[in-house]
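Annex B. Sample input.
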Amino acid sequence: MNKFPEFALENQNGEVVSNNSLEGTTVIYFYPKDNTPGCTTQACDMRDSMSDMNELGVKVYGVSGDSKKKHQNFIEKHDLNFDLLVDEDFKLSSELGVYGPKKAFGKEFDGITRTTFVIDENSNILKRFDNVKAADHADELKDFLKEG
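Annex B, continued. Sample output.
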C-alpha cells in the first residue's frame, strides 16, 4: 500500500480531520488506548518532541478507538500539544491492517497494534513503522524526518 486511505475522523473537539485537510508532511500514529502506561509514555514523548516536529513542518495526530471525551481527558491530564483522532469503529485502523487479534498477558483480544505512518500532502506513505516501541519512538521518528 503506497497511499494512505481516504479518511475523515473527528478530533477531541469534534472537528473533522481528513486527507483534504493535510498539508505538508504528517505523522499519524495508531495506539491502543488512552491513559495506559505505554500509550501515555508514547504520547508524552511526542508532546516533548513537538517543537522539533514543528521546526520540521510536521503535523502529528494520534489515533485510537477511544471517544472524544476520553481523548479530551488524556490531552488535559498530560498536557498534550497535538490532536487525537477518534476511530471508534476501527474502520481506518482495520483498513490499514493495524487492528486485529493481539495477545497480552496471556489473553487474546482485538485491538490496535502500535503503528506509525508518515505521509505527504498527497496521502503518499513515505514510511510505515510497525510494532513500534512506546519509549524512544519519537526520536526514531525525528531521525527519519530529518533525513527526508
